[in-house]
Specification:
By secondary structure, this protein is mostly helical. The chain is built from 3 helices and no strands. Helix 2 packs antiparallel against helix 3 (about 60-90).
Length: about 100
């Protein structure tokens, strides 16, 4: 049987990969993927602590994850639309090319 430390280690690995993708800043798509990986690791923690908690019959962990997935979907839609608008304007997805917010 898989225990709680296995889930926590997997979550830490996912979070580290996401943090590396955000800090490397090679493209805006990688930034968005990194944020999504960090959200996925948080969701994995919610589910693991819910499953191995004192009252797994209460659906608290699953409800947190459902709200988190809804927020992640909205964040991905807004993020991708901003990336597309920036690409149309600058012809680049490199975050270092975006140095001002004026039109």
């Amino acid at each position: 049987m898989i225990s709680l430390p296995i889930f926590l280690i997997l979550s830490a690995i996912l979070f580290s990969l996401g943090l590396f993708a955000v800090l490397s800043r090679h493209s805006m798509i990688l930034l968005l993927i990194g944020v999504e990986l960090m959200l996925a690791s948080a969701n994995l923690n919610f589910i693991a602590f819910w499953r191995f908690g004192p009252h797994p019959e209460a659906m608290t962990g699953a409800l947190f994850v459902l709200f988190s997935i809804a927020v992640a979907a909205a964040e991905a839609a807004v993020g991708l639309s901003l990336i597309l608008l920036i690409y149309r304007h600058l012809r680049s997805t490199n975050p270092k090319d975006v140095n001002s917010l004026h039109g």
